[in-house]
Specification:
single chain; 100 residues; 58% helix; globular
Length: 100
């Protein structure tokens, strides 16, 4: 299966911007956008590996399930990067950040 053409990807991005599903990275993401996307992916991974519900993950993080849902769907405009990192450290206490 070939990778979709850019014009097809553009149409998909436009449709996704109008729905409340999971957001994807913009066409030319900044380093910070990529970093924040990766943070969200770590929450998604943790939830799947540990077979948790939104409620259970929220209890671990000390937040309600609607905020968990936003993080898992990459709808994180209301979250600072620091807050996302602090949530992640709750799940992965040995988290280390590296700038390269």
């Amino acid at each position: 299966m070939a990778f979709p053409k850019e014009k097809d990807l553009k149409k998909i991005r436009e449709k996704l911007e109008k729905v409340q599903g999971t957001l994807m990275l913009s066409q030319n993401p900044t380093a910070l956008e990529k970093f924040r996307w990766d943070l969200c992916q770590k929450f998604v991974h943790y939830k799947r590996v540990h077979h948790l519900t939104h409620e259970e993950l929220g209890q671990l993080l000390g937040i309600d399930k609607s905020k968990v849902s936003k993080i898992l769907r990459h709808r994180i405009n209301e979250f600072s990067t620091d807050r996302l990192i602090s949530y992640l450290q709750t799940l992965y206490p040995d988290t280390k950040l590296k700038v390269s």
